Amino acid sequence: MPQPLQFGFQDANSPIMEELLHFHDHAMVAVFLISTLVLYIITLMMTTKLTNTSLMDAQEIEMVWTIMPAIILMAIALPSLRILYLMDEISNPYLTVKAIGHQWYWSYEYSDYNDVSFDSYMLPTSTLSPGQLRLLEVDHRVIIPTEAPIRILVTAEDVLHSWAIPSFGVKTDAIPGRLNQTSFISMYPGVFYGQCSEICGTNHSFMPIVVEATTTPKFNAWTLHNA
């Protein structure tokens, strides 16, 4: 969950999110070095009193400022493409969950368990118990097992929505008439919060997403109880 005065991303709970954090740090180093170099050159040009009116071209400099940006872009693009393909790879998922966006709540169907389906509404502030989070708690959480590949099928019934869990590095658009998919692996148990990330109407900010990752035996017991 987000923290007050939080500066960076949430802690990662999936291999994909860890890769995204590493890529963010990698890209920020490149941005910082480029910004420092540009600021230095601008400062140098504004403070120097040297002029050269006879210099018409400089082939060496033009080669440098053409080749160097290309190398930097490749150094950023290749890790980005690697993560993109990792995010799209879904092989033999342990569990498939279908998330359907509505105005303004989520419905879930466990495709591998025909009788497990429910709607997930945000809990009103007046009904929260001590310790529960305002505008983030729901009446029915998505229960998943840890250390197992989970596939999420995302769609919508009315307007555009977006199913997003920052700790998992997941953000998938829910589009009426279209079925999108994403996957993740929860590395450790816990409760993880997200929200609809597509402006979908007046109550857009009141349709949170809560995923509870638990051990496989507890997940199996939950499915038997809700079947």
Automatic annotation (TrEMBL):
Catalysed reactions, as listed in the record: 4 Fe(II)-[cytochrome c] + O2 + 8 H(+)(in) = 4 Fe(III)-[cytochrome c] + 2 H2O + 4 H(+)(out)
Q: Where is the Cytochrome oxidase subunit II transmembrane region profile domain?
A: 1-91
PROSITE patterns for this protein: COX2 (PS00078), COX2_CUA (PS50857), COX2_TM (PS50999)
Q: Which domain of life is it from?
A: Eukaryota
Q: Which residues form the Cytochrome oxidase subunit II copper A binding domain?
A: 92-225
- Look up keyword Transmembrane and say if it applies: yes
Q: Name one GO cellular component term.
A: mitochondrial inner membrane
Cite the Pfam families for this sequence.
Answer: COX2, COX2_TM
The free-text note explaining how the cofactor binds reads:
Binds a copper A center.
Q: Which co-factors does it depend on?
A: Cu cation
Q: What does the record list as coiled-coil region(s)?
A: none
Q: What is its main location?
A: mitochondrion
- List the CDD domains hit by this protein, alphabetically: CcO_II_C (cd13912)
What GO molecular function annotations does the UniProt record carry, in alphabetical order?
A: copper ion binding; cytochrome-c oxidase activity; oxidoreductase activity
Q: How does it sit in the membrane?
A: Multi-pass membrane protein
Q: Which InterPro entries match?
A: CcO_II, CcO_II-like_C, CcO_II_C, Copper_CuA, Cupredoxin, Cyt_c_oxidase_su2, Cyt_c_oxidase_su2_TM_dom, Cyt_c_oxidase_su2_TM_sf
Where are the bilayer-spanning segments? 27-46, 67-87
UniProt keyword list? Copper, Electron transport, Magnesium, Membrane, Metal-binding, Mitochondrion, Mitochondrion inner membrane, Respiratory chain, Translocase, Transmembrane, Transmembrane helix, Transport
Localization recorded for this chain is:
Mitochondrion inner membrane
**Function of the protein:** Component of the cytochrome c oxidase, the last enzyme in the mitochondrial electron transport chain which drives oxidative phosphorylation. The respiratory chain contains 3 multisubunit complexes succinate dehydrogenase (complex II, CII), ubiquinol-cytochrome c oxidoreductase (cytochrome b-c1 complex, complex III, CIII) and cytochrome c oxidase (complex IV, CIV), that cooperate to transfer electrons derived from NADH and succinate to molecular oxygen, creating an electrochemical gradient over the inner membrane that drives transmembrane transport and the ATP synthase.
Assigned protein family: Belongs to the cytochrome c oxidase subunit 2 family.
UniProt cross-references to PANTHER family, sorted A to Z: CYTOCHROME C OXIDASE SUBUNIT 2, CYTOCHROME C OXIDASE, SUBUNIT II
Name of the molecule in the record: Cytochrome c oxidase subunit 2
The organism is: Leptobrachella oshanensis (Oshan metacarpal-tubercled toad)
Lineage, please? Eukaryota, Metazoa, Chordata, Craniata, Vertebrata
